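Cross-posted from the bioinformatics board.
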Amino acid sequence: MDDKTKIRQLIQENVSKKKNTTDKIMPRFFLLMAFVSVAATFGIVATLITDAAKFFSQVPISEVFSTKLAPLNANPSFGILPLITGTIMTTVIAMLVAVPIGLTAAIFLSQFASDKMRKILKPIMEVLAGIPTIVYGFFAYSFVTPMLMKIIPSLGAKNALSPGIVMGIMIIPLVASLSEDAMNSVPDIMREGALGLGSTKLEVTFKVVIPAAISGIMASIVLAVSRAIGETMIVTIASGSSKAFTLDITQSMQTMTAYIVEFTSGDAASGTTGYYSLYAVGLLLFVFTMGINLIAQHISKKYREEY
Amino acid sequence: MTNGISKNENIVYDVKGLNLWYGEDQALKDINLEIEKNKVTAIIGPSGCGKSTFIKTMNRMIENIPIVRTTGKILYHGQDIFDKSVRVEELRTKVGMVFQKPNPFPKSIFENVVYGPRIHGIKDKALLMEIAETSLKSAALWDEVKDRLNDNAYGLSGGQQQRLCIARCLAVQPDVILMDEPTSALDPIATFKIEELIDSLKKDYTISIVTHSMQQAARISDKTAFFLMGELIEFDKTSVIFSNPADKRTEDYITGRFG
């Protein structure tokens, strides 16, 4: 009893001595840090917009949305459509590879694999995500392209198909890992509810788990799309720098990112239209990824099952 | 009884005209109630009657919900807890709380018990060990865990976890212990142990307990408050409430006619 009173006094003395200054200062510090990232975002966007504006003041809009891209000609033309088709084609190919394989792998890992199997498979799969993209680019150019040439003889040495496929392979672990997390976080009681009504494991997976996890799955796909749009090294190496406007995936194409690489490595003198075109393309990339994120938010809100 | 001062010392909480709103919905209506020292005060009533809201108001835990607004006074040893000069952390050191579901930290048993004393500046290893032992003994858990104080608290059963949470609460030597349905997630044997524990704790602490179970209120409490739709219908000695309630609604509830 005496001990208890002593401890009580000691604790209450300490508590009353505590100052609230740190408790007041720290949240302000946290706010400041949060503001840094917001400010950086605004800074980047502002730079993009001001320099892109110079580009748009020098080049008529009708030319921007034309199919002729020839920035280094004596009479240069800055049609952006070849870059957009290049980006879209490689991204679509990558998603055609990554989404089906990634999702089915996620379904297997989260619903059907034994614990032991998952513990072996998942880390191996995630090794894919750790490989530098330049290695993937090299792999696309010197291994996948020659192999594809045996099937499609007309395939160019630089083409959109091969980097698209390799980009898809690179993105598989991203889709699989995030979708698996989403499916794993569906509470077991939901599965038990469906199993208790006599559902098969497959029915539980497709009618309960996936609908419940859909917003997480959507998020993983969107992240994958942004990743594919922003990917640079693979397409720079294996897709070449042809600025022709074409939908033929067996031929060389240039993506927006590869265009920026080509021109920042020395061809565009500061202050020229070609230089400002980099900012315009950068802004376009930004608008692309932001648009996709907004769409994704909308979709995942619409299809979310609250639990 | 004979003089005003000694009566005042026996009153730990004096609630005066307490109203509470969640946004537009009034959850507590003009509550007036006194909580006596070293007594167990039970708060009963059907779901949604405001009993949990009330107990969470006593240590201002309710303020974690941003839309809450209160009027009236809660005097704790004569000091209004809503007063600007009251530091809520200090209040909560003196008024401990045990929650509906056992909520130990994902740490060892020992670390759980000494968490409070540690953040309140006690660093002496020997003293911490002593606090852990006395707290666990007071919570009637010592014999079951003394050989595995460094094991994770989540290895304990639900009832043991709840007694660990009581020990964690006792370790800072509070004056009052608030319990919000502490046995509703436990089986009858674990419930019995907690009830025994509450009985042994009241000589050192003032206890206020919200419970769904009328039998529990009848078994362990000295005084009982019956809440209905945010109002305090009746507050009296437990023996009176359960044998000879003044209000028809209290009688209906305890005889199981509704709720």
